Backbone:
């Protein structure tokens, strides 16, 4: 089966190319190759240039409000005070939600990854179901996780209301597959010889994992977690679902009390206002958000380069 | 230790106990906890289905299926609940986005896999990853405040008929254009993985026949990686259908059953977010529409993912 | 200590080895090993004498490493592996359901093909075993680490850099560190799976020296590709070969001949052994 498909592809390709050679089309089209490459390059440049355009536009549009007032002041609804309106509650709210997310998703995700890499028997039905599930969850739209959060964390089962930790939990569900996948990769990168050495001297499996495998995979796990967080930090849709969209002029009281908002939701909220002064604020918010992301990504890349071990 | 050995020499039973030195209950408990965490992913899916199903059933107790699936205007505030226009809105934007994203993503993938030197790829690949991680709210704001007004000002109003009408402030085309660019990295990175997995022996055989780079790329690598590439397209579609913030901000709020790019449309996702973010009372029929529309969205994306998964698996069976 | 540095050939040649292993520490009886439906090793009967070095040699795929890994139940880590027959350690069948493989491995240590120190300091590599197995030491941990490193003839080379990473050592030093690490849990048997195949000749000589010296306190079982190595260090040699299955073509390993090393290399009783030793096959 495998080789059949292989051969079929190879034979088809060989036939096509030989035919092309025979009718001489190759000689006429010397310009075709470079032109084709130029078309391909355009595709990449469009994607990259669009991001640059977003950044440049946001810088220009939000320039007059990129000042310390953004961090010092709370969002203000009064048109007369828009010049001093800040986004402190959104920034602090984002920070709180992220902390809640880290303390929840890292233990759960790493534990699941350890099970799937070290203990799971991949022939059993339940492990297969878990694997299929992880693949499917990774592509479920984020707003659906918002519906889950709305039904079970905001109302329903946990009924936490619209508080910081509801946001953390909802985002935990969203990025858990990412954390599991990256943690598994980090665990898999630890060579089996290390496990054998430890097991060979009579260490139990768990001690082998705890003392050898996990310490060696921490850089990979941290990198993966940061990447997952950088996905979560820009998410607005699931948090709108659990009620973070309201106008909040104060910092969250704690993980389980008081309403909250986050930066992306705040940006959305400002973008929906008719007064264009709000749009300036929204653009400034985009710059702050992208700045946060840039810092997180740089840290992850630095970590990856600094701690990558050649076994 | 040497005393143990001399004991053995004397033919006595050695003082050796190979039975478990402890019951290792702690270890078993840990493994149990790990399995529980791994099962959590299943629990999330079950939770999603339960969350959707429960309130979707409640919705259909008030609104008949025939009403939901009829062709007609979505107007919950006046008791009209056909999901048709929302699906059309989603289709409209996704379709135009894919016209940009599929050639763009495929082109970028071919370049990365076949043309880029190792050094360039090492630089460009992380950039593509960064692009995938840009918050959609940033793209949304850009589409709403920059792309939409710009497109509106240069709209070819000399075109005949519907297409010649100048769009409103928010319209499908602005969102679709940005979404198309936004999906390029997603499609590119999955397609590139598939192309790179094509054995280099196939390429070398083709080069050996005297073919050009372009021929190798288009006639050998792309056909060989086709099922992986199709999976990338399907996942791109699924991502487009599920995108919320961009369409919520830039595509408008009018549930038109329109496939015109210059119309304002309301997608399923935008409807859900708009309804949940607005003032609706818990337990009202409008509240339950969130879940009914969410179910349609979930089923659509799940179906897409399963199709993509099928293609990916077929691809792996052939080459890995 | 200095005695062990006498030339190796003499060390082995002058040693009187009884005809059959006295007081076998490990005995394999009718040992059959399967991976799924694949019959990897067929009906091995072997006794490993106390304070002897037993070498297992043979062509690739003859099952010698598989047998070695069965002796301390490392094969358990391969999910599809299945063992029939018995392996006794001091008379206890280690495949008895009441036996805990983890306890077995504490008594029967292992050194691997490629030096595989942990990514930790030299000191922590040796201290790891006693720590994670919860051993009760008579001496302090520092003293124990020193004892192990002296035993592995590594102390003088590393005593000033115990806190440095184990990866800073040369390949040969790393392998001796792995031996020190293996004896840290106070096993009485050490299994070595081609311990010198990744080392240069000088490092190999150092490890071989060490094996000969350790023989006084440990029972050593070594798998090697290198016939000269078996001839140099071992007291007894077991020669394995592989036999293709007529229907499936899978190669099943089996024991051809087991005798004193001097006999195997000078006067083998089986033609296949002679062919292999003289380089006509393998």
Residues:
């Amino acid at each position: 089966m495998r080789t059949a498909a292989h051969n079929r592809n190879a034979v088809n390709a060989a036939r096509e190319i030989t035919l092309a050679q025979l009718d001489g089309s190759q000689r006429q089209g010397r310009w075709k190759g470079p032109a084709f490459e130029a078309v391909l390059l355009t595709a990449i440049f469009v994607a990259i240039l669009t991001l640059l355009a977003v950044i440049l536009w946001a810088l220009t549009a939000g320039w007059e409000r990129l000042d310390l007032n953004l961090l010092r002041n709370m969002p203000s609804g009064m048109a007369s005070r828009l010049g001093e309106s800040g986004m402190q509650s959104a920034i602090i709210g984002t920070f709180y939600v992220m902390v809640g997310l880290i303390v929840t998703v890292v233990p759960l995700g790493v534990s699941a990854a350890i099970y799937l890499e070290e203990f799971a028997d991949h022939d059993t039905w339940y492990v297969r179901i878990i694997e299929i599930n992880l693949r499917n969850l990774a592509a479920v739209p984020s707003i659906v996780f918002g519906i889950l959060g709305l039904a079970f964390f905001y109302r329903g089962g946990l009924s936490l209301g619209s508080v910081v930790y509801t946001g953390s939990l909802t985002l935990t569900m969203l990025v858990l597959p990412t954390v599991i996948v990256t943690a598994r990769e980090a665990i898999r990168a630890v060579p089996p010889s290390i496990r054998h050495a430890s097991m060979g001297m009579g260490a139990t499996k768990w001690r082998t994992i705890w003392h050898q495998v996990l310490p060696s995979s921490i850089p990979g796990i941290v990198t993966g977690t940061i990447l997952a967080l950088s996905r979560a930090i820009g998410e607005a849709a699931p948090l709108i679902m659990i009620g973070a969209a309201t106008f909040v002029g104060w910092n969250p009281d704690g993980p389980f009390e008081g309403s909250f908002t986050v930066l992306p939701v705040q940006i959305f909220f400002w973008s929906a206002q008719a007064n264009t002064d709000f749009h300036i604020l929204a653009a400034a918010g985009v710059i702050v958000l992208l700045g946060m992301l840039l810092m997180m990504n740089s840290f992850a890349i630095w970590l990856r380069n600094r701690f990558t071990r050649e076994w | 230790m040497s005393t143990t050995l001399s004991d053995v020499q004397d033919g006595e039973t050695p003082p050796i106990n190979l039975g478990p030195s402890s019951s290792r209950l702690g270890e078993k408990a840990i493994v149990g906890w790990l399995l529980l965490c791994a099962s959590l992913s299943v629990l999330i899916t079950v939770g999603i289905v339960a969350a959707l199903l429960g309130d979707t059933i409640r919705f259909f107790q008030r609104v008949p299926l025939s009403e939901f699936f009829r062709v007609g205007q979505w107007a919950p505030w006046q008791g009209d609940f056909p999901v048709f226009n929302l699906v059309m809105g989603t289709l409209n934007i996704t379709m135009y986005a894919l016209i940009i994203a599929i050639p763009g993503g495929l082109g970028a993938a071919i370049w990365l896999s076949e043309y880029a030197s190792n050094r360039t790829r090492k630089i460009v690949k992380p950039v593509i990853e960064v692009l995938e991680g840009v918050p959609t709210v940033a793209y949304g704001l850009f589409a709403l405040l920059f792309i939409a007004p710009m497109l509106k000002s240069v709209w070819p109003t000399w075109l005949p008929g519907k297409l010649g009408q100048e769009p409103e402030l928010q319209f499908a085309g602005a969102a679709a254009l940005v979404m198309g660019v936004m999906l390029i990295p997603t499609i590119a990175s999955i397609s590139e993985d598939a192309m790179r997995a094509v054995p280099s022996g196939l390429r070398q055989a083709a080069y050996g026949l005297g073919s050009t780079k372009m021929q190798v790329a288009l006639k050998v690598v792309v056909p060989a990686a086709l099922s992986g590439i199709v999976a990338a397209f399907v996942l791109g579609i699924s991502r487009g259908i599920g995108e919320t913030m961009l369409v919520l901000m830039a595509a408008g709020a009018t549930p038109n059953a329109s496939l015109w790019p210059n119309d304002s449309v309301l997608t399923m996702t935008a409807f859900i977010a708009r309804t949940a973010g607005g003032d609706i009372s818990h337990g009202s029929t409008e509240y339950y529409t969130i879940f009914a529309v969410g179910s349609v969205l979930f089923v659509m994306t799940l179906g897409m993912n399963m199709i993509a998964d099928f293609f990916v698996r077929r691809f792996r069976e052939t080459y890995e | 200590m200095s005695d062990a540095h006498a030339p190796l050939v003499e060390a082995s040649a002058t040693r009187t080895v009884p005809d059959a292993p006295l007081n076998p520490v490990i005995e394999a009886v009718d040992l059959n090993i399967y991976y799924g439906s694949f019959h990897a090793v067929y009906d091995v009967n072997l006794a490993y004498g106390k304070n002897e070095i037993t070498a297992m040699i043979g062509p690739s795929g003859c099952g010698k490493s598989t047998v070695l890994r069965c002796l301390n139940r490392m094969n358990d880590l391969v999910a599809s592996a299945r063992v029939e027959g018995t392996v006794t350690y001091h008379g206890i069948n280690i495949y008895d359901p009441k036996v805990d493989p983890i306890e077995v491995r504490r008594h029967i240590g292992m050194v691997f093909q490629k030096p595989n120190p942990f990514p930790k300091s030299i000191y922590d590599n040796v201290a790891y075993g006693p720590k994670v197995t919860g051993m009760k030491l008579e001496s302090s941990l520092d003293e124990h680490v020193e004892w192990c490193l002296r035993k592995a003839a590594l102390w003088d080379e590393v005593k000033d850099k115990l806190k440095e990473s184990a990866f800073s050592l040369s390949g040969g030093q790393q392998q001796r560190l792995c031996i020190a690490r293996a004896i840290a849990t106070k096993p009485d048997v050490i299994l070595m799976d081609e311990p010198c195949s990744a080392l240069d000749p000088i490092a190999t000589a150092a490890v071989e020296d060490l094996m000969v010296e350790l023989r006084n306190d440990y029972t050593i079982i070594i798998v090697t590709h290198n016939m000269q190595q078996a001839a140099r260090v071992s007291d007894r040699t077991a020669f394995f070969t592989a036999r293709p299955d007529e229907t499936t073509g899978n190669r099943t390993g089996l024991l051809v001949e087991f005798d004193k090393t001097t006999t195997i290399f000078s006067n083998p009783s089986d033609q296949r052994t002679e062919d292999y030793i003289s380089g006509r096959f393998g």
Q: What stands out?
A: The domain at 65-319 of chain B is CATH 1.10.3720.10 (MetI-like fold). Chain B touches chain A through 105 residues (CB under 8 Å).
